[in-house]
Design a protein that fits this description.
With 370 residues, the protein is α+β, with helices and mostly antiparallel strands. The protein contains 8 helices and 14 strands. 28% of the residues lie in helices and 26% in strands. It starts with a strand and ends with a strand.
């Protein structure tokens, strides 16, 4: 089995089109552009259907990387997995996290145990009527398994976070399905984001053996007892297939980094965040914890669908001015930022079938230093 070295770089951005930090890192030689496998980002849009900061950020990154790679911008988008999550409410800070991967000829001395590994895969393009349904679940499950192989991960227990970018419906896409005599899961573009996120998360759960494979169309957004403990899915208008990024630990990796996770039972589950930090040897506000350095925290957030948190009513679902996903990102983002000691954390809203209802997975990546 080949050995790989995975790098992780968190870079602040001044706007969705700001690529200056990345180009500076490339210019200094700190990042080899040919080694970039995936870029995850938080942009300061509203996270809704009309949040074009996501597409803008991807376009800016592809344009900047194209000459570095000798490719066209569209070719860059096919080569690198881009996942932009809109919405930096509260103390959340816009940033990108760049993941690199390179083959190494032999395992360096002093590197022991399983280290951070990353793999990527794409599903086929979906028809609009397939979003939020069993076809999306099945194809996502296949892609997760492919990405695990790409990462060199053989044991599902070593998978700690699966980030997916998935499509949503637009009026044109709904109309196209109708012209073929087919109905979509919903005619609402906003509601379709939840259907697509939910089906994608169930695909992760099937792939990792967290649930049985006999999931039905009617289970999506209904059977909330079915969920993945490591899935993080984000929907956007800019694609019609799923981009799957698997993050875990592998004996084939010689990375300086490792990843661990926990599952938040609700939006105020500080204990789960602490558990995720401790899983990679970090303490609360762990900027300098005994030879370990926090790189980033990745989490999902949603307003509890039953309208309460630990027996007390919340109003996130009743606010007609601000969507519940924005409330949830702000609440969970503030909680994690306080424990991690930074607002530059990746918190994505909408956690359908991603952890228990009202909760969600939380993963931490740490750099190991001597």
């Amino acid at each position: 089995m080949r050995s790989t070295s995975v790098g992780v770089f968190k870079l602040a951005t001044e706007g969705p089109g700001d690529v200056s930090s990345l180009t500076a890192m490339i210019g200094s030689g700190a990042i080899d552009p040919k080694s970039i496998l995936a870029i995850l980002g938080k942009t300061e849009g509203n996270g809704g259907v009309n949040d074009f900061t996501r597409e803008y950020a991807v376009a800016a990154l592809c344009t900047a990387l194209a000459p570095q790679l000798g490719l066209t911008a569209p070719e860059v988008e096919q080569r690198i997995a881009f996942v932009m999550s809109g919405g930096t409410e509260g103390v959340l800070s816009p940033h990108i996290t760049v993941f690199t991967r390179q083959d190494v000829p032999q395992r360096p001395a002093g590197i022991a145990g399983k280290r951070l590994a990353i793999g990527m895969a794409h599903t086929r393009d979906f028809l609009p009527e397939e979003l939020g349904r069993s076809a999306q679940i099945t194809e996502t499950s296949k892609a997760v398994k492919t990405a695990m192989v790409d990462a060199g991960i053989t044991d599902p227990a070593d998978v700690h976070f699966v980030q997916i970018k998935c499509p949503l419906l637009t009026s044109d896409r709904v109309e196209a399905a109708g012209a073929r005599g087919n109905k979509t899961a919903t005619t609402s573009a906003y509601a379709s984001m939840a259907y697509s996120r939910g089906a994608s998360a169930l695909g992760v759960a099937v792939a990792l053996g967290e649930i049985a494979p006999d999931v039905r169309d009617d289970d999506v957004l209904r059977r909330y007892d079915l969920f993945s403990k490591v899935a993080s899915t984000s929907s956007g208008i800019e694609l019609m297939h799923n981009v799957v990024i698997v993050l875990g630990n592998s004996a084939a990796s010689v990375s300086e980094f490792e990843i661990g996770h926990a599952v938040m039972s609700d939006a105020i589950d500080a204990a789960a965040v602490i558990t995720a930090l401790q899983s990679v040897g970090l303490d609360v506000a762990p900027q300098a914890t005994k030879g370990r350095e926090l790189v980033n925290v990745f989490a999902k957030a949603e307003a509890s669908p039953d309208g309460s948190v630990r027996g007390f009513r919340h109003t996130m679902l009743e606010d007609t001015d601000i969507s519940s996903t924005r409330h949830a990102r702000a609440a969970v983002g503030g909680l994690i930022a306080g424990l991690a000691g930074t607002g530059a954390v990746y918190v994505s809203g909408g956690a359908e079938h991603q952890g228990p209802a009202g909760g969600g997975p939380v993963a931490a990546i740490a750099r190991l230093s001597d």
